[in-house]
Amino acid sequence: MFRGIDEVDWASMEHAYGNAADVPELLRGLASPLPQERETALDGMYGAVHHQGDVYDSTLASIPFLFTLAGHVGLADRGEIVELLASIGGSGDEDAFEDGADDVVPGRDAEDREDDNHAMARTAIRAGAAVFLDLVTDGDPQVRRAAPSALVRFHDEPPRVLALLTERLRDEQEDGVRLALVESLGLFARLYADSAAPAVDCLESLCAAPNDPGLRLAALGQLAWCAPDRLPDDLVPTVVALLHIRSQRFRPSGEPVRTSSDTLIGSLRRMRPADEEGAQLLRTLHQALGSRTADRIALLKGQLSSQDTADRCNAVWMSAGLFREWRAAYEEPVALIGEQLGSDEERLRWAAVSVLEFLFTLAAPAADRLATLVESGPDSWGRGSATLGRPLKALARCGDARAVPALAEVLRHPVVPNETGYTIGHLGPAAAPLAPLLRERLAEVPLDDPETYGRAAPLLSGLGTLRYATAVPEVLRLLHGTPRELRLRDALVKALTRALGAFGAPAHEAIPALRELLTGGNAVAAADALWSVEGDAGAVLPPLLRALAPQRDTGGPRTAAEALGRMGAAAAPALPGLRRLTDSAEVWERTAAACALWDIAGDPVPVLPVFRAAWTQNPYTRRTITACLVRMGGAGAPVHDLVRTELTSPRRHRARSGGHGSHDVLDDELLLRDCRTALEAA
User: Fold this and answer.
1) For residue 675, how far is the Cα from the chain centroid?
2) More confident residue, 100 or 1
C-alpha cells in the first residue's frame, strides 16, 4: 500500500502547520487495525494536510497513496478515505467542476499558487477516477455510499456514469447506498444539464409509490434542486405524510459511538443526530426550496407537529438556516419551536433554545415558554459559570423584562459570564434595576490581571447602555489604576472611554482624565467621549483632524469621521478632510465620511453617490447608510430606490451560504426597521 512513500521528500513540503514530515505517519495510520488510530489519522489529514479545504504540496503528494488505500479491499473506513479524496478534488464546490479551469499558470503570487494546487488536485483526482467505478460495487456498504458522488464529480465519461448509477439503483439492496445513488443522480443532473433528462426522469419516477418513503423523500429533494417544475403540486402534504410514515418505521440503531477519542472527527461523530439520515433528507429539500418560504414554513410546521422527537429535532435545526437566510412571517414556527422547550428529550430542548438564542426579537412568540424555563430555577441562568445560560440569554435578547430577576441573580455572583453585560443592552429601560449590580461587579475587577479587559468590557457595555453615570468612580479606578503593560490595555481604555461618553455630561469628573488621553494612541476615543461629556470643540477637534490625515498615527480615519459626525456643525473645520476621505479605497472610510458630511454640513450632493456605491459594494454598510438616511429625511430621496428594493427583497442582506453569524438576523431586522423609518421620515 505504501510503496515509494519513503522516497518522497516530505520534509521539503508543507501543510497547515508547517513541515510535512509527519504525513507518512498519518497515511499509515489510515490503514491501522485500531479504530482510534484510524480516526486520529483522519483527523490529522483534515486538520493539517487538507486544513479547511486547503490543498498543499503535501496534499498533492498524498493523493496516490489515498487512492491505493481506497482500493484496498478489506481495509476498514475506506469510505471516509473516498470522501477525503473527493474533498481534496473539489472542496465541495460544484462550480469548480463546471469551470473546467485546470490550467496551471506558474510564477504568480501565493494566492494564485493555492488556486494552482486546487486545479492540480482536481486533475489528479480525475486522472484516478476509474477507481470509483469499481468502488460503486464494492463489498463494503460504507464505500458504496461514498463512491457515487465522487464518480459523478470526477469521471470524464458522463454517459457511462449515468448508466452505472441507474443500473446500481436497480440492483442495490442497502437503503443507505440507494439514498446515496439518488443524491448522485441529482448531482449529475446539476453538473451535466445538457444530458440530464434521463437522470431527471429517473428521479421523478422514484418520487412515486411504491418506493420506500426515505427514497421518495430523497428523490423529491434532488428534483427540487435540478427540476423544480417537475415537483408535485401537493409537495408539502406529500413530504409530511412520507416523513410520518418513515418515522414510524425508523428506529435509532442504538449502536455505541465507535471510539471515544478526543479528535475533531470523533466529536463530530458524537454530535450526529439520532436520525442522521432523516436530517440529511430534509436538509436537502429545505436547501433546494430556497426562497419558497411559504412551502418551507408549512414543511417545518408539519415536521414540528410530528410525534417523533427525532423529526422535531431535525425540524428545529432545519429552521435555523431558513431564519438566517430568508425574510418571512415566522410567528407560527417560532411558537412551535418554543413548545419543544417542554420536551423530556434533552437533545430537542437544547436544539430549540440554541435556535431561539440567535433570533433576538423574532423569538417573541416563544417568550412565554422561555420565561417558564428561566423561572423554573438557576439551571438555565449560567450563574457562577463562564457562559450565560442560553434560555436566559434568549429571553433577554428578545427584550422580555422577565429576564431581569434572573440576570440580577447572575450579577450577584462573584463570577459573571462575559455575555451578561452585552445581553443586558437588549432589554432597554427595563434593565435599569441591574445597573447598581453592574457597578458592584466592575468595582471588583482586578487592576493587574490578564483577564481584566475580558471581565470589565461587558460590564462597561451594560453600564454605558443604561447611561449609569453613578459608576464614573469605578470607571476612573480602572483608567488610572491599570498598569501600562497590562494585556489588552488599549482595548480596555477604549471601552472605558466609550462608557464615559455614553454617560454624557453627568460624567464631568472624568474630564481631566479624558483630556490627558488626547495626545496618546487612544486620542480618537478620548476626543469622542470628551465631546459627549464636555462639548468643547476646541479641545477635541485637533486630535480628530489629525486622525483624518494620511499618516493615520493617532486613530482610524473611520472612527474619527464617526466622532466628527456626532459633533454636527461644530466640526465644520473637518469638512475638507472628510471630503478627501470620501475618495478612500476603503469602503467603510468612505461611508463614515459621507455620513459625517451630512451630519455636519447638511449637503446631500457629495453624500448620496458614496451611499449608492457602498450599498452595492458591501451589504454590511447598509445599516449605517440607512441610519443616516433616517436623519436626512427627504434629502435622501434620490437613493430611496435602494431602500424600497431592500424592503421587497426576500433574502437577508447579510445572508451567505452556510453562514452562522450570531447577529445576522438581528442586524437584518434592524435594517428593515430603519428602511421603513427612512421612507416615513421623507
Assistant:
1) 24
2) 1
